[in-house]
């Protein structure tokens, strides 16, 4: 992550907000429809609270308002966002360093903060945004070398680097298991199927010493 990354660089300028006077049932429907777990409660443009899924569900259950009740059920019981909302989310300035925001997210145990400028909410930064901004990217798709490759400078046997252009074993790798004449020295016996370290050639086949004597 760049050390000069700020809140303004990653914040969502469009975010979900509700007012204190909104019916709780409408706010709960917004939570479900948008697939989010928290709404910012605004008074004008000032963030004054938060409404989480658990807060909304708990209040609706306590009031006996179920999913099958009519659309005015919570209004009749006086349930509004302001009556059940939690404390405001932590606030940051748009020009704050993102690194400082990450520390706030962890230390305060929240999954988002609100960016405030001139007393009004102008954006939201989630823990996912901070994580994405700090995720390492190579940009070329190259993988990190394996430990034994770093030590020897050679690819591991079985890696893609040992394959030829046609998908078969690279000739340089294949040569390591043959003798100077090109005859196989280790592998699976073509007669009995045993894996042996010292194959020999007999009648045009690579066989183990036991099968050669038969």
UniProtKB/TrEMBL annotation:
<feature type="domain" description="ACP-type MB">
    <location>
        <begin position="184"/>
        <end position="214"/>
    </location>
</feature>
<feature type="binding site">
    <location>
        <position position="208"/>
    </location>
    <ligand>
        <name>Fe cation</name>
    </ligand>
</feature>
<feature type="region of interest" description="Disordered">
    <location>
        <begin position="132"/>
        <end position="187"/>
    </location>
</feature>
<dbReference type="InterPro" id="IPR046342">
    <property type="entry name" value="CBS_dom_sf"/>
</dbReference>
<dbReference type="InterPro" id="IPR044065">
    <property type="entry name" value="ACP_MB"/>
</dbReference>
<feature type="binding site">
    <location>
        <position position="189"/>
    </location>
    <ligand>
        <name>Zn(2+)</name>
    </ligand>
</feature>
<feature type="binding site">
    <location>
        <position position="192"/>
    </location>
    <ligand>
        <name>Fe cation</name>
    </ligand>
</feature>
<feature type="compositionally biased region" description="Polar residues">
    <location>
        <begin position="175"/>
        <end position="187"/>
    </location>
</feature>
<feature type="binding site">
    <location>
        <position position="192"/>
    </location>
    <ligand>
        <name>Zn(2+)</name>
    </ligand>
</feature>
<keyword id="KW-0862">Zinc</keyword>
<dbReference type="GO" id="GO:0046872">
    <property type="term" value="F:metal ion binding"/>
</dbReference>
<keyword id="KW-0479">Metal-binding</keyword>
<feature type="binding site">
    <location>
        <position position="211"/>
    </location>
    <ligand>
        <name>Fe cation</name>
    </ligand>
</feature>
<feature type="domain" description="CBS">
    <location>
        <begin position="85"/>
        <end position="143"/>
    </location>
</feature>
<dbReference type="Pfam" id="PF00571">
    <property type="entry name" value="CBS"/>
</dbReference>
<keyword id="KW-0129">CBS domain</keyword>
<dbReference type="InterPro" id="IPR000644">
    <property type="entry name" value="CBS_dom"/>
</dbReference>
<feature type="binding site">
    <location>
        <position position="189"/>
    </location>
    <ligand>
        <name>Fe cation</name>
    </ligand>
</feature>
<feature type="domain" description="CBS">
    <location>
        <begin position="11"/>
        <end position="68"/>
    </location>
</feature>
<feature type="binding site">
    <location>
        <position position="211"/>
    </location>
    <ligand>
        <name>Zn(2+)</name>
    </ligand>
</feature>
<protein>
    <submittedName>
        <fullName>XRE family transcriptional regulator</fullName>
    </submittedName>
</protein>
<feature type="binding site">
    <location>
        <position position="208"/>
    </location>
    <ligand>
        <name>Zn(2+)</name>
    </ligand>
</feature>
<keyword id="KW-0408">Iron</keyword>
<dbReference type="InterPro" id="IPR051257">
    <property type="entry name" value="Diverse_CBS-Domain"/>
</dbReference>
